[in-house]
Structure to design on (1013 residues):
């Protein structure tokens, strides 16, 4: 019997359709269908100025907007031959790591809700709100930040920010212990999650699965360490890996990643306290600086002969390894923007980790994938 | 005047009303209206109406209680705007559901689709006529009221299955199957745990069981049975961690996926009615019903309707325990649930039965009583 | 960390320890939120209330972040019509094309004054318009309640935005600095006909038409038919709106770099 789990189903966390073939309660086959949330972000990007694409990036993944902004500006800077100031790089690292915590907290909330834990859902959301409050205090928005710019970031931190941020980190560190008690300390939780959704390292590599799913299989692969960008080369952190390759292992990896993010953030905050400086690069091309002036006559602009270029970037997004490719043909708009969504690959491998388990196992397994359909369909 | 009981009160009310009407009526009518049969029929109706109102109000207050408790467990406030502290919120919700259009999927079976929830609701309501709330406050002393209550209680899987099957929805069907399997599996340990109580108290009459607990409540000596009974009750009431028939994460509310409006309200109300009945049973069987220990000052136990008051307090506390469990535990899987049911619960409940028999044999019950009891 | 993570909390078959840990944790949270739940009772309490800015925080047991509504919140725009120079920069910078320049009273009949009208059905609150505004007259406020009854009401004409300005709501204090070596408008003199269009339409009146000497016509050569004036742009007043470029009939103005 085929069952359509989706497009509107509590398990999907968005808009996609998981078709499962069941025999009693046993899953014998499955077939993920994506594309319900396709908004054509890559195509729209070709018609926008470089900085205006950033507004789309926040909407690409609504729980990890900063990660996608960062991904795009890194690629665009490479394509436009711009070097951001060092303080901007640290600020971006700050954004991305806080975003990782926020995204993982969101994942935690959704995941425990999937297995029927009611109250930790709200604990996760409550604590994520602290991170969003921090974001709002310096970007002016809670989820759609539009903070990064090609060549730096929009503005510097408000006074007193680092002190507040440290308090939030302290609070969160205490909460992580509580989360573990609620989940790992619960026998029912362990019975629900141990040995479920096993995806071996070889299968991960074969299907392009990245991020916490890959690390939970014991593969020590993290773009922040393997292909460092922004301020990561100067920072000290560990890559969280687990060896179970199951739902519990993914839980462990994500919780450890949050702890590592706290560790990273403390270093970043210390650095930011002692190194004031500009946050936006000098000598930006006309359409990237403040004026945002009208296009004027297109042919005159093209006469200017801005250097062409191609930009590629790869970052460790909270969901996995995201990549962007930006082609600059010398005009005000990117000629082509292409993204690689980690969740798309993770979802495409559904058949490898879902077949053979039971219907009741679908929510924990799919919850452990950490789905963000916005970036799957773009 | 009959003794103070719910039925007695309603009988007196009707009798008073009819005689006063009869006194002003001319000859043939007054004899007819004070006729004994009419008084009897009307008083039964009044009794049923009072019962309905009491159970409904209790159920709705129970939902409020759960919402408030759950709110605090989740670091929020729960319903708080309609009425004092949100007490009337559930009435508003019920009114909203009542106003909604009742619809039926085109492919669903009409008879089963509509009769399932109705019968589920009705059987849950019947339970209230059976359970004693305080001395004399029941429909009459049935010698086998405990058996009757549990028998009516176990009708539910049938109606759930009927409504799930006739919804013609795959999720509903799976939920119905799970529900049937779960309820049948947990019926056995539940009844065995009750057997332990029956052995100790020596009666199937709930009133007698409570009177037996005058001196010591049964939760101490029969703790094992209590644990089994609460776990079985959780499964029977389909609450987290055993709510997998209506697991919303995978089955989208399971067997009531297709129901909306008042039919859904029937399911919802009946669920909480059963929650209330479950808490009633726990209080009646293990927590001394409406009796209070002798160390409680007399001022607290001698006011009018004190029995009902303390009974309801205990009931709500027991339901609070269920809410606490719901707030902190995830739900289990069907196979795990059944394995626990057959492999753990039944041996445990058998052990509880043997323990109860042993305790009765060696007559050491008061030792386990919640408090020293001078009488025994 | 060198060791891979493994689940350390041991599973116990003991039916009492079975669920004790999560239940105790939940009960602890219950006790904590019994007196101070984290909820902000929204219509009655608001995050922008002074008490949430200063008193309430993680220390007081109520985990509300760090003064949640800061002044730089990007909410509904406020427009000061009096200082608006109708430079179009907000409309040009809008990625969603939700800003239209509409005529407001106050301009002269030949060159009517135009101010932004914002369609909040399209607006994404990115703040590019207020960043671009050279006069600081269009800025974003902390107002976030936007329910309206119809789509038409979502279009806020300049007068309504001015009304929001007059409410004196806290406004986004962050101004993006204009880069020091900004591009400027440069002229390609041979093409200019001295038509005065750029000077006439310049919103800041920073273009003056300077007379240039009329060259002597060489024998056999015909002088171009033009007014012998050329625009001179005062860079310190120029807001780089590009109006002159778009109105230039001969396309002789364009963007250039200072160096």
């Amino acid at each position: 019997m085929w069952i359509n789990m989706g497009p509107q189903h509590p398990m999907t966390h968005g808009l996609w359709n998981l078709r499962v073939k069941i025999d009693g309660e046993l899953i014998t086959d499955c077939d993920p269908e994506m594309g319900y949330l396709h908004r054509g972000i890559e195509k729209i990007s070709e018609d926008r100025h470089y900085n205006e694409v950033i507004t789309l990036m926040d909407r690409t993944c609504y729980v990890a907007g900063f990660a996608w902004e960062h991904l795009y500006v890194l690629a665009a800077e490479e394509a436009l031959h711009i070097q951001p100031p060092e303080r901007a790089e640290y600020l971006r690292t700050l954004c991305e790591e806080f975003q990782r915590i926020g995204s993982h907290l969101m994942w935690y909330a959704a995941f425990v809700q999937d297995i029927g834990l009611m109250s930790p859902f709200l604990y996760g959301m409550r604590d994520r709100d602290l991170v969003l409050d921090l974001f709002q205090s310096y970007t002016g928005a809670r989820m759609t930040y539009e903070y990064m710019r090609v060549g730096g970031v929009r503005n510097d931190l408000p006074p007193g920010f680092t002190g507040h941020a440290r308090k939030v980190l302290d609070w969160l560190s205490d909460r992580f212990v509580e989360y573990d008690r609620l989940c790992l300390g619960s026998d029912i939780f362990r019975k629900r999650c141990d040995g479920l959704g096993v995806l071996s390292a070889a299968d991960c590599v074969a299907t392009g699965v990245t991020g916490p799913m890959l690390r939970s299989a014991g593969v020590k692969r993290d773009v922040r360490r393997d292909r460092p960008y922004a301020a990561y080369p100067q920072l000290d952190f560990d890559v969280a890996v687990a060896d179970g390759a199951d739902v519990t292992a993914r839980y462990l990896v994500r919780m450890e990643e949050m702890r590592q993010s706290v560790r990273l953030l403390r270093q970043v905050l210390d650095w930011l306290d002692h190194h004031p400086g500009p946050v936006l690069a000098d000598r930006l091309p006309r359409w990237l600086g403040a004026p945002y002036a009208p296009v004027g006559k297109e042919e005159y602009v093209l006469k200017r002969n801005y250097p062409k270029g191609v930009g590629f970037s790869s970052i460790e997004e909270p969901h996995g390894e995201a990549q962007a490719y930006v082609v600059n043909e010398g005009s005000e708009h990117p000629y082509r923007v292409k993204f690689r969504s980690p969740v798309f690959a993770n979802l495409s491998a559904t058949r490898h980790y879902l077949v053979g388990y039971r219907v009741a196992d679908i929510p924990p397994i799919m919850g452990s994938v950490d789905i963000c359909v916005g970036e799957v369909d773009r | 005047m009959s003794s103070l009981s719910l039925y007695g009160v309603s009988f007196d009310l009707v009798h008073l009303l009819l005689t006063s009407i009869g006194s002003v009526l001319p000859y043939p009518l007054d004899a007819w209206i004070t006729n004994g049969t009419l008084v009897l029929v009307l008083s039964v109706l009044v009794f049923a109406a009072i019962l309905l109102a009491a159970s409904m109000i209790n159920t709705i207050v129970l939902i409020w209680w759960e919402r408030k408790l759950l709110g605090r467990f989740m670091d929020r406030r729960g319903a708080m705007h309609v009425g004092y502290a949100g007490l009337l919120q559930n009435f508003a919700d019920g009114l909203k559901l009542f106003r909604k259009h009742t619809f039926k999927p085109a492919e669903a079976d009409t008879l089963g689709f509509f009769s399932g929830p109705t019968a589920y609701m009705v059987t849950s309501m019947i339970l209230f006529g059976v359970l004693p709330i305080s001395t004399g406050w029941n429909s009459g002393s049935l010698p086998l009221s405990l058996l009757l209550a549990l028998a009516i209680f176990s009708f539910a899987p049938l109606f759930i299955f009927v409504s799930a099957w006739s919804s013609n929805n795959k999720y509903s069907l799976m939920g119905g199957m799970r529900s049937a399997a779960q309820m049948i599996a947990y019926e056995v340990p539940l009844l065995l745990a009750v057997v332990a109580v029956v052995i100790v108290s020596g009666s199937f009459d709930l009133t007698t069981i409570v009177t037996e607990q005058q001196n010591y409540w049964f939760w101490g000596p029969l703790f094992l049975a209590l644990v089994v009974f609460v776990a079985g009750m959780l499964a029977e009431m389909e609450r987290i961690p055993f709510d997998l028939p209506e697991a919303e994460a995978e089955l989208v509310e399971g067997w009531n996926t297709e129901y909306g409006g008042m039919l859904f309200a029937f399911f919802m109300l009946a669920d909480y009615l059963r929650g209330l009945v479950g808490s009633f049973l726990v209080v009646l069987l293990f927590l001394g019903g409406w009796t209070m220990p002798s160390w409680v000052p007399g001022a607290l136990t001698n006011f009018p309707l004190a029995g009902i008051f303390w009974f309801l307090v205990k009931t709500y506390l027991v339901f609070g325990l269920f809410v606490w469990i719901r707030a902190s535990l995830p739900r289990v899987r069907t196979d795990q649930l059944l394995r626990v049911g057959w492999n753990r619960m039944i041996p445990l409940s058998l052990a509880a039965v043997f323990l109860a028999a042993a305790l009765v044999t060696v007559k050491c019950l008061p030792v386990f009583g919640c408090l020293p009891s001078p009488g025994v | 960390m060198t060791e891979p993570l493994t689940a350390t909390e041991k599973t116990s078959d003991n039916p009492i320890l079975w669920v004790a840990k999560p239940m105790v944790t939940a009960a602890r949270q219950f006790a904590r939120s019994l007196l101070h739940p984290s909820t902000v009772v929204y219509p009655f309490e608001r995050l922008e209330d002074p008490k949430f800015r200063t008193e309430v925080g993680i220390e007081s047991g109520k985990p509300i972040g760090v003064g949640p509504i800061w002044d730089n919140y990007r909410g509904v725009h406020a427009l000061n019509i009096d200082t608006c120079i109708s430079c179009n920069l907000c409309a040009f910078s809008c990625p969603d094309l939700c800003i239209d320049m509409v005529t407001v009273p106050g301009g002269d009949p030949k060159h009517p004054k135009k101010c932004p009208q914002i369609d909040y059905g399209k607006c994404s609150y990115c703040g590019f318009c207020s960043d671009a505004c050279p006069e600081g007259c269009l800025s974003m406020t902390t107002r976030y309640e936007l329910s309206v009854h119809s789509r038409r009401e979502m279009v806020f004409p300049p007068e309504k935005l001015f009304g929001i300005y007059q409410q004196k709501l806290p406004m986004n204090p962050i101004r993006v600095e204009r880069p020091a070596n900004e591009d400027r408008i440069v002229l390609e003199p041979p093409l200019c006909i001295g038509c005065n269009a750029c000077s006439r339409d310049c919103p800041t009146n920073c273009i003056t038409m300077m007379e240039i000497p009329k060259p002597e016509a060489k024998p056999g050569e015909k002088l171009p038919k033009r007014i012998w004036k050329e625009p001179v742009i005062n860079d310190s007043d120029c807001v780089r709106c590009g109006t002159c470029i778009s109105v230039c009939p001969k396309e002789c103005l364009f963007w250039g770099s200072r160096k």
